[in-house]
Structures are given as C-alpha cells and as structure tokens.
Design brief:
Blueprint: H1 7-11, E1 16-18, E2 25-27, H2 42-53, H3 69-75, E3 103-105, H4 121-124, E4 131-132, H5 135-176, H6 183-186, H7 189-209, E5 223-226, E6 232-235, E7 243-245, E8 252-254, H8 260-278, E9 291-301, E10 318-324, E11 328-333, H9 345-360, E12 372-377, H10 378-381, E13 385-388, E14 409-412, E15 422-427, H11 429-443, E16 460-464, E17 471-475, H12 480-484, E18 491-497, E19 504-506, H13 507-513, E20 538-543, H14 546-560
Length: 561
C-alpha cells in the first residue's frame, strides 16, 4: 500500500537534522546522535564535560563499631574490568596478570575513526584532544609499578609466614591441651557462641592480613594517552590522529598525531616566526597603514538595555585590529568568532599577514580576507570623541559610571547604517596614548580627550621624607586608576602619606621605624608621628622602570637557590 511519499521527500524530512560529527540524519529533539553517540548541541556537550570534570562527591554511611574499616575500604576498591563482586575471601582467587588496574587498553571498537584519517580543525573543536604521556611520566610510572610490585611481594611473603606460624601454634595447642571438664559442659550454648565469635574475628584477621590483589602486568607496545577525565589509555601507533572512546568513562578523545616534544618545538618555532612577522618584519608590511593596533576591544551597546553598573559591559566585547592610514581607518575582525572565542593566536597571526599583504597590494576593501571590516573615513575620524571619562559626570552618556571597567578609556564610533547598536572602542592608558598619537600624526587630531582628565603624560610631584629628608617623585593619585588598570604598566610602592597633616614617609623609612608593622598592613590605624592621628591608607607610587625589573630577576633566582 503506497503512502504517497517520494524518496526525495524522505531525504528532505524537516523533522531530521544532520549530526555535526558523522553527518548522519537524526530526529529533531534528540540529545545524542543514534549513530556515533555525540551530542547534537555544543552547549549540552559543554555542560556534560563540566559535569564529568566535577563529579558529585560520594557519601558513605558510618560503619558499625565492630566492623573492620580497612577491610571495608578494601572491598570498595574498583578496577577497570570489574564494577562489582561478591563478598568473598581474597584467598579464593588471584587477579589475572593480563588485567591492568589503572591503565586501559583501547580496542578497535573504541575508535570512531580508522587509523590514519586526518581530523579537521572543526571536528577537533568538538572532540577533546588527549594528552600523550611524556618520557618522564612513563619512567615515573614504571618506577612506581616496580616499587609497588616489590612491596606487594614482601607483604605477601610476610603474611604467609604469619599464617604458617599461627597454624603451627594452633596445632601445638591442640596436641598438648587436655580436657579440664566434661564434654557436655564444654559444648554448652554459651561456649559455642563464644567459639563462633572467635572464628568470625579470626576470619576478619585473615582477610585483613591475607594476600592482596596485585596490579596487572604493564601492557607492552603502543603509546599512552590521557582522556579528558585523566584515565590512562594505551593505544597502538596506527591510531594516531583517530578519535576514540575511553573504555572507563566513554568520553570522546583524540589521539595526538605526533609526539608532544616535537609538537611543542614546532609550535614554538611557528609562534616565533609569526611574532616576528607581526612586529614589522618584511613579511608583515601593510603598506600605507603605518599604525596597526592589535586586539582592541569593540563594544556594541544597545541603549535600551544599558545597565549603569560598574563593569556591566566589561566582558561584552569583541576584539578587532585597528589599522590607520592617511586616508582612512579600518576595524578588522580577523577570524570568525566560534564557540570558544575569536580563534587561536596562530590563526589570528596568519590572518594579519594575509590582510597586510592585501593592503600592501592596494586591492579593494571589499575583498579584504577578514571576518569583518568596518571603514571609517578621514572625515569621520575628525568627529571621534571620548565618552568616558568626561570632565563632568552629567555630560557623560554613562553618568560617570565605569561600565567598561575601572581605568578603561572609551571612544564613540560614528553610526553605521547596517549596525543598530552604538559602538565604542575601549583602550588601556598605554593603548590610548599610542592611538591618539597616531591620529595626530596622520590626521591632525590633537584635541581627542583633551578635557576628559586622561593623563597623556606621566604627571608626577616631588615629595620629601619626614625621617630621611630624601626627595623622590610620585604619581598623582587622581590618575592612579588608569595606571593600575593598564597591564603594560607595573607600579612600585615608594611611600605613605598621612591623611591628616599630609606628612610623607618613604617606604624604606617606614620599614625602619616600623610604622604599621613590618609589612605595613596596619598603617591605616598607626599614629602619625606629627599629628598623633590615624595615619590612613594613602599610598604613593612610582612606575617601575625596566632596569628595576631586570635587577629583581637575579635576586629572586639567588633567593630560590
């Protein structure tokens, strides 16, 4: 009987969707693929991985007072091939030497892909990459196995000697003992109960001191990898680059295609080459775009959903590269953002080189090999303005609230027709100084953020120590938040100032006079030597110079030795 459904209609069933791993058609709504078992949605897979990484703690009931805790703990031990077993004496069996307790042997059924099949980067993003065991780890595990085997052999030998001695003693007592009472009295109810209890205790003693399970012999050949949950798995060399399932937890893993030492060396060499290219070598030459800023934060803000809370937009951003020429400014999204962010550093460096070559050859902007491109003309560059910080809070769109993070500087971009949200570029102090300098050099913009209170140069003042009368320069505390938020600037504490009488004490003098204790933690409640009031917690800072950092490194190494 025909159901009037053609084969083409069956193949294009809207109730089915292809599996992202094996491309098999799966009914809509299923959590896992019926063919390969992979998750159909990445968010569910990520939640499952997190659940596997942080399992719920096991809860054990309290043991009876007369139970043997060590014997109970031993009975709860688990191996790779046994999940439950009857309560039997260890003397009844010995563990097969071919079974490994902590190391699993992957069979052909554990792999989803045949050996030699190359896995693309898209597939690797959904399959956790297993880590291959290094030579040092293999040597350490071999030494541990040898020591454990030796220890077990000594324990078994000692236990055997104890059992033989106990048996000989019991036999001697049986021969020499003479009945001191009648048979009917000796076999009374209380006497039999006591004998049963003694036998039960002896059974527990034998179980505790008897033979212990030995670890199986190490499987020879192949390579050792670790699944995402930390289980050691030994696989054959032919499965390098293939995906498999862990025999212990069924989590997908990918066998490395090469040894970790070689991969790290090649990765380090490639990173060095890319860094040299990005720093201005002959390979990285963007032509007329003489100023290039990497990984600048771009925030797209919907005014109707804006929350005026500190740091509310701190993590709501995408990173772009900003390239500036005398004719225009480009905002370049290097690679397409994925589930884990904007791509790896290697992909970004490779994209920079390709984009730079495109710009050097002066090709069309529409053909730039980037995930996203925004063009800001020279006329629009003249209209750029700083929206945070501002001189007066009521003039700010954000009412003086540091929504982008404390110490961040925000610039509003011109409105784009295809983008509904308002866009802002945010900078650290060092990034902003370089950006403003580039705009002034190429486009003559000299008043960007002039009235916003941003320190374009390091503003310092000279103070004198009350004890040593030494004079030293310190940063103005009004601008300190910009320096603290800048990852490229490192500050060093050089002094303290009394909040009442403005008395200044250098950090060296404070340590000698023990004001606030040895480390200065109690400085806020310490008494000022001049006004006898609480000293307060006003710190004085300087920018740590490069030579100071270089001098500290040998001192730290000497202290470590």
């Amino acid at each position: 009987m025909s159901n009037d459904i053609t084969p083409d209609e069956q193949n294009t069933n809207p109730n089915e969707t292809p599996c992202p791993l094996c491309n098999e058609m799966v009914r809509v709504g299923l959590v896992r693929c019926w063919n390969c078992g992979s998750f159909m949605r990445e968010d569910i897979a990520e939640a499952y991985r997190k659940m596997q990484e942080n399992p719920a703690p096991m809860i054990f009931s309290p043991l009876p007072e007369d139970s043997d805790e060590s014997a109970e703990e031993e009975s709860r031990g688990s191996t790779a091939t046994m999940t439950a077993y009857a309560d039997r004496d260890d003397d009844d069996f010995e563990l097969d030497q071919s079974v490994s307790v902590t190391e699993y042997e992957a069979s052909d059924d554990d792999f989803q892909l045949a050996g030699g099949v190359e896995v693309s980067q898209e597939d690797q993003s959904t399959i956790p990459l297993a880590r291959e065991e290094s030579a040092e780890e293999a040597k350490q595990h071999a030494e541990e196995d040898q020591a454990a085997s030796k220890q077990h052999a000594e324990e078994d030998q000692a236990a055997s000697k104890e059992e033989d001695a106990a048996a000989a003693e019991d036999k001697k007592k049986d021969v020499s003992a003479e009945p001191a009472e009648d048979h009917s009295v000796a076999t009374g109810g209380d006497v039999l109960l006591n004998v049963a209890m003694e036998e039960e205790k002896e059974e527990k003693r034998r179980r505790k001191g008897g033979r212990r399970r030995r670890r199986g012999s190490k499987i020879e050949g192949g390579i050792v990898v670790y699944c995402p949950n930390g289980h050691r798995i030994r696989v054959r060399e032919e499965y390098r680059g293939a995906a498999g399932k862990c025999p212990a937890c069924n989590v997908m893993y990918l066998v490395p295609t090469e040894a970790p030492q070689q991969a790290e060396a090649e990765s380090a060499g490639a990173a060095t080459d890319e860094n040299q290219a990005a720093e201005g070598t002959e390979t990285f030459d963007p032509g007329t775009y003489s100023h290039w800023f990497q990984n600048i934060k771009l925030h797209a803000v919907d005014p109707t959903k804006l929350k005026l809370k500190p740091n509310s937009l701190e993590k709501a951003f995408t990173t772009v590269d900003v390239a500036i020429s005398p004719e225009k400014m480009l905002l370049l999204g290097l690679v397409k953002a994925g589930l884990l962010g904007g791509g790896s550093k290697d992909k970004q460096d490779k994209a920079r080189i390709e984009i730079a070559q495109h710009l050097r050859e002066e090709k069309e902007d529409a053909e730039i090999p980037a995930a996203s491109v925004q063009t800001i003309s020279a006329e629009q560059i003249q209209k750029l303005r700083v929206v945070f910080p501002t001189m007066y809070d009521h003039e700010s769109v954000f009412a003086g609230v540091p929504v982008f993070g404390k110490g961040r500087i925000a610039i509003a971009l011109p409105k784009q027709e295809e983008i509904k949200e308002n866009q802002y570029l945010t900078f650290s102090l060092t990034e902003y100084r370089k950006f403003a300098e580039a705009l002034q050099e190429l486009h003559g913009v000299s008043d960007l953020g002039q009235d916003s209170g941003i320190p374009m140069t390091d503003e310092v003042r000279q103070v004198t120590c009350h004890y040593s009368e030494e004079k030293f320069d310190v940063l103005e505390n009004e601008n300190l938040e910009f320096y603290e938020a800048d990852p490229e600037i490192e500050l060093t504490l050089v002094g303290r100032q009394c909040q009442g009488c403005q008395l200044t004490v250098s950090e060296d003098s404070r340590k000698k006079e023990r004001i606030g204790g040895k480390t200065g933690k109690g400085i806020a409640k310490a008494k000022c030597p001049k006004c006898n009031e609480k000293f307060g917690n006003i710190s004085l800072w300087q920018i740590k110079q490069a030579d100071e950092v270089a001098d500290e490194a040998p001192q730290e190494e000497a202290a470590a030795e």
